[in-house]
Amino acid sequence: LEVKTATNPDLRRLYAGLLRHGMKLPAAGTYEWQVSLRPNADVRRLVKEQRQLALGLRALEVGVGDFVMYRRQGDTRQALGDLFPEIDEAWGWAHPQGPAKVHLLPPGGGGAVGPSAINPFVTAFLSRIAERDGLAKLMRPGTDRRHVFIWLESTLLVEWMSFCENQLPPDKPNLPEQVTDVWLAGYCRGNEIQAWYLPANEGWRSVSGAF
User: Fold this and answer.
1) Strand runs (DSSP E) across the chain, as ranges?
2) Core-most of 9, 137, 152, 157, by most CB within 10 Å?
């Protein structure tokens, strides 16, 4: 299992804060928001003052269409930046279905992710290991099912965000012949472990309750 780690101390603290305190907060309006934070952002303060943050974002929804964007640098609407200088950018879009959320993201983490990043990641990850003959031990005679467990770190940002949205991919990754079953797990909301299981010849299923 390869693990990429952030070398910037502020980014490491930011990732740890998002893991500990969560990435999703309730919105005050009907817009879904993605908020890109500066590396030195205090996630605990944002969570503690989430109501004020939600109201600040809602003020940006007034008189706009289905999409609104805020940038701290050069934006004339500075009320939000004065209250929360750790916010670098924010994107909001109309979301009439169900309760809207505010998604807290590391720098560069904006944009909808969805489940699309998971299967390419699993395919590429296992292919790299297979190329180094790292899966040879799974090919023991008499073994019908060959399981691989992957622990997904938040430092693999796009893949981790895709996983933590908890939308199961509708299709399966391409697996090397040495692998029949895949387990994928990681921390998503504080210390809560999220886990998916891909059985042989079936689709992804959530097994978070087993951990």
Assistant:
1) 24-26, 31-37, 67-71, 87-94, 101-105, 147-151, 181-189, 192-198, 205-206
2) 152
